[in-house]
Amino acid sequence: MRRLRFILSLSLVASLFSMPALAAVKAGSACNKLNGISYSAGFKYTCIKSGKKLVWSKGVKVPTPSPTPAPTPAPTPTPTPSPTPTPTPTPNPKPKLDPSKPKESGNCVANSVDVIGYSRDEVLVVLMCNTWDNRYTPRPGAQQVDQTTGKIVLGPLGSLKATLEYRTQSNATQKPSSVITKPSELADVSQCKIADAGPFGDIPNNPQKHFVSGFPLYPERAVLSKSPTIQVIAIDFTDLQGSNSPADDFKETTAFVSDFYQKQSTNPIQVKWSIPKSYFRMPKPIADYDLSGDLFKGGFNPEKAFSYVREAISQVDASIDFSDASIIAVVVPPQVTRKQIGTFVAQAGEPSQAFRTNEKSIFNVLIMGGPTGDKAFEILNWTHETGHMFGLTDVRDTSDPTNQDSSDLGVFDLMNSMVAPELLAWQRFLLGVLNDDQVRCVAGSSITTHLLSPVERITTDTKMVVIPVSKYRAIIVESRRNLGYDTSLGTLSEGAIVYTLDTTIPYRKSPLKIVSPASATDLKWRRDSALKLNQSLTVWGYKITNIESGDFGDVVKVEKIG
């Protein structure tokens, strides 16, 4: 610190001593030191002796130095670029064709579903099967197909293409602000278990007693909620022999069917398969069983099909224990053709129609047929037919098997359509895989408000509002989103879906019918029938309004009118 103070002091002293030398001077005025020099106003003055005095001399002008310009560096010469040759464009390689996809003009099975395949120009398009020549042709007005992914490009109306895709379900990030009616203010759920009219004899000219649309299920049906077992009877023939194990041949089908029904359930369940290690050989060639009759062409003979099942059981009964089975599936090697077995049969037998095994009688039998469509169609068809084993009825108009009509429910529910195959909340309730506390039963005249989680989301949250209007009829509301197996839904199909139930409607007609808002225009596939925010509709004396919508689902208000 001393040294620092000393240096500062010297600096101050030096400054003080230099100040007089900068004072203004005048020629002839006295100075103190001979030859001393002083500068003032641009002149140099020297202290000289004049007589006995020391005086300042005449000032000599001091030249102002010109500033030396900073040297400018010489620019680095830029080399002249050599011209770059224009590259020869490389043509985009033509995409390699997928040999598994059909082509325009290729053979197809009559009445088979649309598929994605190649046009004559080798462009992926939607192909339909012509009814007059059973050949594929591009469907007029079909949606565009992405040439990279091979999938339909979804627009607001979504796609009509069946798919096996499953969209993983994330938890909701939004919360509704509406006040929801308390469960204690609603009716007991038992009032909303609408009875099926069939067992009561209240369906005119009812031709069957195996499928229902209301409670209860017939006791002969397999119980989905109790994790049923499907016993596979795998058979082949001298002229149609299996080369792999049945488990390998059907692993995609069995896995999908099990996963599908497990995901329809709130609680953990299983659809279990018991599959033999190899095929059992039938005693006759396949043609001798005369199974080529096609239901869609009017040539199907059920008695021949059932006789075939009984003979198959007799071939395997000594080797297979049927004790745990509630469903039998008779399968053959996958190379079977439609000409060999023309119809896939789901026989849900009535009390007098059992198939007898050494261990027990079994009423529910699946009989595999030849393929009619692509892999997605075949696997979804297996899943649909398995639904009959649990007691579900077809919920489309099947009066004319060759021209079935899905317009009552549009794209919704696998028992109607493969486009949006997630089962309706009502179907899950009927099967016992939707809990009672997930149902909101509205039986009074008060205005009520209900939060509905999307039916596709696996959750214990509320999934359905049921409004009973009579013993056999009800209004039902649920929420739908592009989630789960409903990956073909467009944005116009997302929202609150309203439909009616009438269990007196006879078999082959749909007991479930969507109610569309006034703005809807797609009356065939009902893809714009979902109630969006602030939309409402009136049906059977009730007004239903969507008052809030988000990733949580939909909040609906129910009002009794009139």
Provide an overview of this structure.
The protein has helices at residues 2-18, 246-249, 251-264, 302-316, 375-389, 425-431; strands at 37-40, 43-50, 53-56, 60-61, 115-118, 124-129, 136-138, 229-236, 272-274, 280-281, 325-331, 345-348, 355-356, 361-362, 364-367, 439-441, 448-452, 464-468, 473-480, 495-502, 512-514, 536-539, 542-550, 553-560. It is elongated, with a radius of gyration of 44 Å. Strands 8, 9, 10, 11, 12 and 15 form a 6-stranded mixed beta sheet that branches. The chain has a 5-stranded mixed beta sheet with strand order 16-18-19-20-21, with helices on one face. It has 4 domains: 17-61, no CATH class; 96-153, no CATH class; 170-203 and 406-562, no CATH class; 219-390. 13% of the residues lie in helices and 21% in strands. With 562 residues, it is α+β, with helices and mostly antiparallel strands. The longest helix is centred in the first third of the chain and has 17 residues, at 2-18. α3 packs across α5 (375-389). β6 and β7 (136-138) form a beta hairpin. It is built from 6 helices and 24 strands. Residues 95-104 have a biased composition (Basic and acidic residues). Residues 61-106 are annotated as: Disordered. Residues 64-94 have a biased composition (Pro residues).
